[in-house]
Design brief:
Number of helices: 30
Structural class: mainly alpha
Order of helices and strands: HHHHHHHHHHHHHHHHHHHHHHHHHHHHHH
Largest sheet: none
Distance between the termini: 98 Å
Shape: globular
């Protein structure tokens, strides 16, 4: 006999299935609606891409610290030929060479970074104050020339320091200009070590402080200081209690940027003989490959720490508003009739030696018959100069050039320069495009946690020391079989330089009202046409900077690429090769070519886009 269930049971069962079906459909509809917006789909793809490109090399280098390396000390002392071991960690932190291989380089790296921060902020901040808040003369010229040390390759001032102050008696190298012309021999602590390294990096990164702090000084409301003046507050107290607190955000930004950059600097400590984590990594080589990877992990941890500090200082911060609806007039400090000229002359002389003199010095070095032979200067005999380093067209006759042709006829040099341009163009196109998409998508999802994660992933490589990023990609590239290829160089450069484009794009996209794109959406205009015909043309100057900054930076990059390719692959590693060979005329010539090329590119950028690093501070 067939049993019939109650009608209520059928109704309840049908309703339950309908509810389940409707919940699934609601979820699918939400998912479909979310990804129907291009910025959400692109943001998801970018998050996955940046996670892989940033985290995968870090995982590779972390595994390398515990991997047994055949022919290395970990294999010798453990007796293992493969597998994993903690020997590298134990030996590096507690072994007999721990002081030499870890603690001294770590201390030097931290001290170098800290002192460079102080030096850059003091020099750059003081310069910004004089340009924006006083009646000093020659502001436009000084503002333009002050940023030259940052545009030039990092090692430029280190080499100039050597050319000026080295002496055979003190440093064991060829005599510099001061010794050759005047017989002045500076002490060893002045020529090599911590002091010159701090001075060079401070001068190199002072434009950071100038740009960041100068912008706040320029836009500061005069009423803030005038109110304190009316109350009878002394000028020095106004500066300490009103002016300095308002530039605190710029100071913190400068500290974070300079600290991370100085921590990852290799060329400056290398040229000036200071042992840091970067130079120690290179010195360890294959014999202590695992321990060297630990040094890179330590540098990466510093980058992560800096990112955390940056997040803490920029979120939930008290207000530092300096531009309001009130008077925007800037109160200028009167330096006096003679003071405004005296200070300007002092700065003109100082910037000459940091910006103009390097170009003259490198050009002059390429005409010396031998390094340090400045006899032409005190004899006036032009026969003591030579053009062989430029014009020798054959390498058969031994002319003290060690089988090399002159710079103008040297196929290896120009081949390396071509390689540099290939890498720079590819990095600029990839980093610029990815950075543009990151900036666009993050600006459209400002309150999204995933957008914040993608933004942090895009910015993290900039805060990580360049050598640490290079080491991570060296281990990753070696395991993938792409070592010494343009592909590996482009991958590393793209990841490292995405922050240039993403920050530039994000700032410009945040300025755009949502109504602009909404009007196009109402007209049913596709996303790619909205980007190409509306958004990009409006912010073309900022977006163009996002492509050009990676290009210029990549052209002068050494630290990031030096472990990823042979010394003849690109122009900066070839320069390092000539320095190791003692052919300083060739390295000086390459330095000169790089500086002139970068300055021409920078001038073209300013001409075509109107963009300038000092624009709005002391420039136009």
């Amino acid at each position: 006999m067939k049993r019939f269930m109650p009608l209520a049971w059928y109704r309840g069962n049908i309703m339950q299935q309908t509810v389940k079906a409707s919940r699934a459909r609601v979820w699918l509809n939400k998912l479909k609606t979310t990804f129907s917006k291009p910025q959400n789909a692109i943001l998801l793809a970018l998050g996955i891409l940046l996670t892989f490109s940033t985290v995968a090399p870090m995982i590779s280098i972390a595994l390398d610290t515990v991997t047994v390396h055949v022919g290395s000390v970990d294999s010798h002392y453990t007796g293992l030929k493969e597998g994993y071991t903690l020997y590298n960690w134990v030996d590096l932190f507690t072994g007999k060479l721990a002081q030499t291989n870890l603690w001294t380089p770590l201390l030097n790296s931290v001290l170098l970074s800290v002192f460079s921060c102080f030096g850059a902020i003091f020099y750059g901040g003081l310069f910004a104050y004089l340009v924006t808040r006083t009646n000093m003369r020659c502001k436009k010229y000084l503002s333009s020339i002050f940023i030259f040390p940052y545009i030039m390759p990092q090692w430029t001032l280190a080499v100039i320091w050597q050319n000026l102050f080295d002496s055979n008696l003190v440093t064991g190298t060829s005599d510099g200009l001061l010794t050759a012309l005047f017989g002045i021999r500076m002490p060893l602590w002045w020529c090599q070590g911590m002091f010159p390294s701090v001075m060079v990096l401070s001068l190199h990164y002072a434009p950071f402080a100038y740009i960041l702090i100068g912008g706040i000084f320029r836009n500061m409301d005069a009423n803030l200081e005038e109110a304190a003046t009316i109350m009878g507050t002394p000028r020095l107290k106004i500066f300490a209690r009103v002016t300095l607190p308002l530039v605190k955000p710029a100071v913190l930004s400068t500290v974070l940027l300079v600290f991370s950059s100085a921590m990852g600097s290799y060329p400056v400590p290398h040229y000036l003989n200071l042992t840091t984590l970067c130079t120690k990594y290179v010195q360890m080589g294959e014999k202590r490959a695992g321990e060297a990877s630990i040094l890179a992990v330590i540098m990466i941890l510093f980058g992560v720490l800096i990112l955390i500090v940056n997040q803490r200082t920029t979120s939930g911060r008290q207000s530092y508003t300096t531009v309001t609806g009130k008077s925007g007039q800037i109160s200028k400090i009167n330096l006096g009739k003679s003071g405004k000229y005296i200070i300007a002359v002092i700065l003109v002389i100082l910037t000459f030696f940091t910006s103009i003199f390097p170009i003259i010095s490198f050009a002059f070095e390429t005409f010396l018959p031998n390094p340090g032979d400045y006899s032409f200067l005190y004899t006036g005999d032009t026969s003591n100069l030579t053009t062989k380093w430029w014009l020798t067209s054959e390498n058969v006759t031994e002319n003290g050039m060690y089988g090399q042709k002159g710079i103008l006829f040297n196929e290896a040099i120009w081949g390396a320069f071509k390689g540099t341009l290939i890498v720079a163009v590819c990095c600029a196109l990839l980093a610029g495009t990815i950075g543009l998409l990151v900036g666009y998508c993050v600006s459209k999802n400002r309150r999204s946690k995933w957008a914040a994660y993608v933004n942090n992933m895009a910015f993290l490589p900039y805060l990580m020391p360049s050598l640490a990023v290079g080491v991570a990609f060296f281990v990753f590239g070696s395991s993938m079989g792409i070592f010494n290829t343009y592909l590996l160089l482009v991958l590393a450069g793209t990841v490292k330089y995405i922050p240039f484009a993403s920050r530039s794009a994000l700032s410009s996209m945040m300025q755009l009202s949502g109504e602009i794109e909404e009007a196009a959406i109402i007209q049913d205009i596709p996303w790619h046409k909205r980007m190409l015909n509306i958004i990009i043309p409006i912010q073309k100057s900022s977006i163009m900077s996002g492509y050009l900054l990676p290009f210029i930076t990549c052209v002068r990059e050494l630290t990031l690429f030096m472990l990823l390719c042979s010394q003849t692959k690109i122009i900066t590693t070839m320069l390092d090769y000539f320095d190791e060979m003692g052919l300083y005329a060739f390295s000086s010539g390459i330095n000169l070519i790089l500086i002139v090329f970068i300055l021409i590119c920078n001038a073209l950028i300013n001409k075509l886009t109107g963009a300038s690093l000092d624009k709005g501070i002391g420039g136009e």
